[in-house]
């Protein structure tokens, strides 16, 4: 039996809007949003974990690097379950790191470190977890992108309006770095 809830973000969701309720979600049936060429699926977030962590997936085709950004108060984990993803990270001393992550590989991004990624193989999937004193940022995906009931990748590229990028840092602990340059070579 699957129970549907209403949340402050959606009329229908399988995620309860308050903490303290056990729940189960079938593959792909979390709250979904299209952003760029990817689909993000949220399975747990701030409301369920008292803002201690979130759990989401990102699936997408081979594509362009996503915009460089940082999280002043949030640590982020990248775990690859399908395909390959190139992770770019700059540490707090300014040294840049780049690593191709494939199935089973793990990447950790400390808070305040600029980072970005690029999906290198079609049908890649990242399992993401984010946690930190700043709360969680999972609702960023549907705020910047487009919430969807569809299970697949977007039929068209979803590029946010430029003004949307400015609304994100205060609400979701995501600072975009439009002038950031990666010197790692890829």
UniProtKB/TrEMBL annotation:
Gene3D superfamilies cross-referenced by the UniProt entry: Jelly Rolls
Classification lineage: Bacteria, Bacillati, Actinomycetota, Actinomycetes, Kitasatosporales
Taxonomy, superkingdom: Bacteria
CDD domains, per database record: cupin_QDO_N_C
SUPFAM superfamilies: RmlC-like cupins (SSF51182)
InterPro entries reported for this sequence: Cupin_2 (IPR013096), QDO-like (IPR053146), RmlC-like_jellyroll (IPR014710), RmlC_Cupin_sf (IPR011051)
Protein name: Cupin type-2 domain-containing protein
Record-annotated Cupin type-2 domain positions: 61-119
């Amino acid at each position: 039996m699957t129970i549907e809830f209403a949340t402050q973000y959606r009329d229908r969701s399988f995620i309860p809007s308050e903490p303290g309720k056990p729940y189960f979600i079938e593959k792909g049936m979390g709250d979904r949003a299209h952003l760029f060429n990817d689909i993000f699926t949220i399975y747990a977030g701030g409301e369920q974990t008292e803002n201690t962590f979130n759990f989401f997936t990102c699936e997408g085709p081979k594509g362009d690097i996503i915009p460089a950004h940082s999280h002043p108060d949030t640590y982020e984990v990248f775990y690859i379950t399908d395909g390959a993803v190139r992770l770019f990270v700059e540490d707090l001393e300014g040294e840049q790191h780049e690593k191709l992550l494939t199935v089973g590989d793990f990447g950790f991004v400390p808070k305040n470190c600029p980072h970005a990624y690029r999906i290198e193989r079609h049908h890649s999937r990242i399992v993401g977890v984010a946690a930190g004193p700043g709360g969680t940022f999972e609702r960023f995906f549907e705020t910047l992108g487009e919430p969807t009931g569809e299970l697949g990748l977007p039929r068209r590229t979803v590029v946010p309006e430029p003004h949307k990028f400015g609304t994100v840092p205060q609400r979701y602990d995501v600072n975009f770095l439009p002038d950031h340059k990666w010197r790692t070579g890829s």
